[in-house]
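User: Can you predict the 3D structure for this chain?
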Amino acid sequence: MIDALRSGDDSDGISRRGFLKAGMAVGGGLLISFTLPGLMRGAFAESGEFTPNAYVRIDREGRVFLTIQPVEMGQGTYTSMPALIAEELEVGLDRVIVEHAPADDKRYANPALGFQVTGGSTSVPANWKPLREAGAAARVLLVAAAAKEWGVSADSCKAENGEVLHPASGRKLGYGALVDTAATLAVPESVPLKDPKNFKLIGTPAKRTDSPDKVVGKAVFGIDARPEGMKVAAIMLCPIIGGTLDDVDPAPALAINGVRQVLRTDNSVAVVADHTGAARKGLAALNIKWNGGANSTVSSEQMLQKMKEASEQPGIQVRSEGNVEDAFAKAAQKLEVTYQVPFLAHACLEPVNCTVHVRKDACDLWLGIQVPARAKSVAAQITGLPEESVQVHNHLIGGGFGRRLEVDFVADAVKLAKQVDFPLKVIWSREEDTRHSTLRPAHYNHLSAALDSEGLPIAWTHKVTGASILARWLPAAFKDGIDGDAVRDASGPYAFPNLSVHYVRHEPPSGILPAFWRGVGHTQNAFMVEGLLDELVHMAKADPFEYRYPLLKDHPRAIEVLKLLREKSGWDTPLPSGHGRGLALTYCFSTYAAQVAEVSVNANGEVRVHRVTSVVDCGIAINPDSVVAQVQGGTIFGLTAALFGNITFKDGRMEQGNFDTYRMLRINEAPLMETHRVESLEAPGGLGEVSTVTIAPAVVNAVFAATGKRLRSLPINSGELRSA
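Assistant: Here is the predicted structure, written as structure tokens:
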């Protein structure tokens, strides 16, 4: 997502004084407020006053409070963000208390994307420099305050472990004793940052700060919120995409003990009860009449056929380099193929939920969401209240993956809560969450390659056909008919002498919402690019590693990743009979990553992934343990989709519901995973999505190595492999 949304270079000579500002915190203490780069013009333009979008506060007890924009949804934000402050401030990670930012698009915007959002693997890259500079500014002021107290030069003092020391005299003062004096000092124009070789926290394995509360059940997720007087609603939306509610008799539900009300909107019914069990029992008792409308006969087969027909259109030119037609005319060999990927749901562990209390003059929301300001905005629109009267209480998220970038479930909850006079928690069942999920778009893509006499590609074409997420989700980023997310990675990191990329926008029936899904466009196109490249490797009878090196002349870091991967994966060692290895590479979210998968295929065509070796160059690693966790989590997520993920429709209804029909990878099916990192001093890249991008092509290429059967669609179909 970041590649499609980031606005570019915003360096405009703004001084450190404009970036950092010190003052007295409420109740006494040192407040370092800062407006993150890229938002300075907006921050000053409307009011003419300094409007910070994040705060570092140190109180008189020496505690450090950090208000951060990124939400925690399992990716380790509540550990990595404090580490950036703590490193420069010279305090332990345990001294930083995280406070989540309120819903405010202007003051708490993601500096990489320009509005309040957690996504696109941007949390660390976007905050890498700003948060360190804020910590460094606080350190400089505290040292200056101590020097002033002692009547010595600041250069003779140093900060260490939450104290300022004067080695020559042995004197020391804790930060808490210095904050009042520090708050009166001017912020320096120049804030020195540590040389990476002097890092104490960054690059050192650290235990997740959010884990203890999660282990003992103290952590509060959106679904755990229980404001006083709350009741629970179980919701059912029209099962036919885009359909509406026709009629419902509430009597059967009201006859159940604990049920209080039956609510309805234009496309849903909800049963309100004292607890979830009664609400769900009441909902199941209802005989609901739905109006399916125009989509009552929609099927996956129909949608695929229409997408195939659309893919025959020329589309809009996205990239054009060299002379593709001339290269194909002179080619020694040519290959033209079609690849396709299905709709996918997010299947977060915590199903979508939202607790809402609507009053005459105010509205409160309790939930976990990646776009809190959008939740605030939609609640204001539905209630008719001004946005300042809506308060969003954001919580930990039990899995986001892009699903919580949407506010459809927030809108549904607010519509229901408007009909009652108490806080209402609306919980989607697993089935409702799946059947009404926003979806990663299905794609049907045409690719072709022209080869020279040595089997190397001299031309590459890729025509992407699928829905546009950006046209719906962020229209300003949908320019000239091109969805930047849909076409990214259309040629991978490779340098082809002649290149042509086209985009054909083709939307599914109304009611199916194309949406971001962990890795999004990269997961679609990398599967196809790495698949076709592997086909070319075998046509040339070449080695998959050696074949890629000449194509990566602009990416020396990628070559180093591949070299380390070859060693660590045991690529050149023998395999058991019936096994195969496959390779895939990506450059996404400013991170280089590659994987080798080892698989076998049994007589029934079932694929078993035995081992996955990953190598990443993500720049400086804030927490090396998180690197391993992120790569492993993304691998399991992507492997699940590659083996089982497929959302299908029949008679206008989604056929999948719970985990029996929308399969997850089971623990006994998980491969042995090894993760290795190329040491780097480059600025950090994103990491949460890269292995989701590479695992599907690595596995499919391994299947070919094991069976000789080339798969060009997902999920992997055992029927196609049964005869292999």
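The radius of gyration is 27 Å. The first helix runs from residue 2 to 5.
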